[in-house]
């Protein structure tokens, strides 16, 4: 038996006995042992397979540019990242923008605002829509990443990636959603159009917040693996799958308001 056939046999065997992902984990560990991490290969891996929890933060930090590809530089770079985190945090305390009782996700927001030159004159100023998006993503990320320094940097770079790398693609996702839903279930799409619901679906929740606060953590991690590695189209397929999963319920609703409210508040099976 050749090496490839042995590997394929093992993969099938592992999957049958409930150890799916063993081979994938080994492949990732091999990639992570390189002196200079191959960004393209890590992106490809993240597109094809869910990242193991123990390596997710590291891979995300590398793909988001928080850490450089060279292993030998990781410790030094993270020292710089921690110092910058501490400096920004200290500055916010000095100007009394945050206190000991400020929620951690709000601290992340104020840090991000200060670094991007958008800190309002007072903490009491109403939040902008992009601030609400940041907070939603931060709340979900806080559940995934334990270390506060890692968490802030990942949130910061994840949000910046959405604003910059995916800036042109995100506005096109509602049309792509409509296209793929039509391919999967034209009757369901027709019902949405009849109810004038297509333009009122929770696209901001799905595509700008990347389902933050909408899906369970385990599902969100796998979706964000794909977004971090460069694909926002996964958001379209998830949205289509949600509609197909709740087709019976959606078809029973006869107004755009009811459909939108349901899709904003549904309980997705874990």
Automatic annotation (TrEMBL):
Pfam families given in the database record: RabGAP-TBC (PF00566)
Cellular compartments per GO CC: cytoplasmic vesicle; cytosol; lysosomal membrane
GO annotation terms (biological process): negative regulation of TOR signaling
Keyword Cell membrane included in the entry's annotation: no
Entry's transmembrane regions: none
Quaternary context: Component of the TSC-TBC complex (also named Rhebulator complex), composed of 2 molecules of TSC1, 2 molecules of TSC2 and 1 molecule of TBC1D7. Interacts with TSC1 (via C-terminal half of the coiled-coil domain).
Gene Ontology molecular function, alphabetical: GTPase activator activity
Classification lineage: Eukaryota, Metazoa, Chordata, Craniata, Vertebrata
Summary of the function given for this chain in its UniProt record: Non-catalytic component of the TSC-TBC complex, a multiprotein complex that acts as a negative regulator of the canonical mTORC1 complex, an evolutionarily conserved central nutrient sensor that stimulates anabolic reactions and macromolecule biosynthesis to promote cellular biomass generation and growth. The TSC-TBC complex acts as a GTPase-activating protein (GAP) for the small GTPase RHEB, a direct activator of the protein kinase activity of mTORC1.
Gene3D superfamilies noted in UniProt: Ypt/Rab-GAP domain of gyp1p, domain 1, Ypt/Rab-GAP domain of gyp1p, domain 2, Ypt/Rab-GAP domain of gyp1p, domain 3
The keyword Iron-sulfur is annotated on this UniProt entry: no
Keywords assigned by UniProt, alphabetized: Cytoplasm, Cytoplasmic vesicle, GTPase activation, Lysosome, Membrane
Official protein name in the record: TBC1 domain family member 7
Compartment(s) of residence: Cytoplasm, Cytosol; Cytoplasmic vesicle; Lysosome membrane
Native source species: Erinaceus europaeus
Rab-GAP TBC domain segment(s): 50-231
């Amino acid at each position: 038996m050749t090496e490839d056939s042995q590997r394929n046999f093992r993969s099938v065997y592992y999957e049958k006995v409930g150890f799916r992902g063993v081979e994938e984990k080994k492949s990732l560990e091999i990639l992570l042992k390189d002196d200079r991490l191959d960004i393209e290969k890590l992106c490809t891996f993240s597109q094809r397979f869910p990242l193991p929890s123990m390596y997710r933060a590291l891979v995300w930090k590398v793909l988001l540019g928080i850490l450089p590809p060279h292993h030998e530089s990781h410790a030094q770079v993270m020292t710089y990242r921690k110092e910058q985190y501490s400096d920004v945090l200290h500055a916010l305390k000095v100007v009394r923008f945050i206190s000991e009782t400020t929620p951690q996700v709000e601290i992340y927001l104020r840090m991000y605002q200060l670094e991007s030159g958008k800190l309002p004159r007072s903490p009491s100023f109403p939040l902008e829509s992009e601030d609400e998006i940041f907070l939603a993503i931060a709340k979900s990320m806080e559940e995934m990443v334990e270390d506060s320094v890692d968490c802030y940097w990942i949130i910061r770079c994840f949000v910046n990636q959405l604003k910059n790398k995916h800036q042109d693609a995100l506005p096109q996702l509602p049309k792509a959603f409509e296209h793929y839903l039509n391919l999967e279930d034209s009757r369901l799409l027709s019902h949405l159009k009849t109810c004038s619901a297509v333009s009122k679906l929770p696209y901001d929740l799905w595509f700008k917040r990347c389902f933050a606060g909408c899906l369970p953590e385990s599902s969100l991690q796998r979706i964000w693996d794909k977004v971090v590695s460069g694909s926002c189209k996964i958001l379209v397929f998830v949205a289509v799958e949600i509609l197909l999963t709740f087709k019976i319920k959606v078809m029973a609703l006869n107004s755009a308001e009811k459909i939108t409210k349901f899709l904003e508040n549904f309980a997705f099976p874990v």
